[in-house]
Write the C-alpha cells for this entry.
Amino acid sequence: MDFKKMGAEFVGTAVLVIGGVGAAVFAGKEIGTLGIALAFGLTLVALAYALGPISGAHVNPAVTLGFVLSGRMKVGLGVQYWVAQFLGGILGAALVVVVRSQVSGIDQKLFGTNGFDSLSQTKASIGGAFFIEILATFLFVFIVLSVTSRIANASFAGLAIGLALAVAHLIAIPVSGAGLNPARSLGPAILAGGEALTQVWVFLVAPLLGALLAAIVHAVVTTERRTRVEEPAPAKPAPAKVPAKARRR
C-alpha cells in the first residue's frame, strides 16, 4: 500500500470538505451560490498545487475512477485512493459539525448535504438531480483528464481544474446541492442521517457514471495516443563520404 499517496488523498479530501462544505454551512446565506462554488474551486486549486506532486490531488472518487478507466492508474491503487478519500470526507464533515455546534447563530440543521425534492433549492425531482450530477461531473472529470494529459500544459492544470469545479458547482448547486464527489457527499449525509442519508445513493452513483462517460469521451476525442504513434522516428545518420582518392585505391 502506498501510504504516502493515501495520506495525501485523506488529508486533501478532508480539507476540500472543510473548505467547501464549511463555507456553505458557516456563510452560505452571506456568500450565496457563487461564493460556495468559489470556495470549492479555490480550495481545489490550492490542493492541486500542494498535493499534486504527491498523489495528483484527486480528492474525489469520480476523478480516480476516470484515471483508472483511462489507463493512467492501476485498479489496486485506485481502491486505496477511494478508501482514503471516503475516510477523509467523513473526517472533514465531522470537523465542520464540531465547529458548527460551538458557534451560536448558525442553523444547527445545516450539514452541507445534497438532495432532491424537499432537500433541493429548486425542489428538483430525483431524475433532475441524477441527471445534473452526471452532467456536472462529466464536465469536471473530462476537463481534469484533458488538462492532465501528456500533451497538455501542466503548469496551469491546477487553475483549470479549480475553475472547472467552480463552474460545475454553479450549475448544480440550485438543483442538487452539487455533490459531484461521492466522498464529499457521503460524510455530511452520514452525520445528518434521515432523508439526506436515504438520498445519498444518487450522489454516489451519478458522479461515477459521469466519470465513466468522461473517460469514454476523452478516449474518443483525445489526440494523446495518436500523437505518440505519429511521432517521427529519429533520423538515421548519413553515411560518411569516402574521398575519391581512397576509392581509387
